[in-house]
Design brief:
This protein is mainly alpha-helical. 87% of the residues lie in helices and 0% in strands.
């Protein structure tokens, strides 16, 4: 009975899921930031090309 808390404390089986969740969150923040940055610049380029063609 006294070994149960010690076994639960040393159990690392659920740690991988938390690490994957943190890694996914970091990747999503980077992707969203890149899309927002590139998206606004691409919109400006397409607008200037469209106005010069007309």
């Amino acid at each position: 009975m006294f070994n149960l808390p010690l076994c639960l404390w040393n159990d690392d089986s659920g740690q991988d899921i938390a690490e994957y969740a943190v890694m996914l969150a970091v990747i999503l923040v980077i992707v969203v930031g890149t899309i927002r940055l590139v998206g606004s610049n691409a919109n400006n380029v397409f607008s200037s090309v469209a106005s010069s063609v007309q």
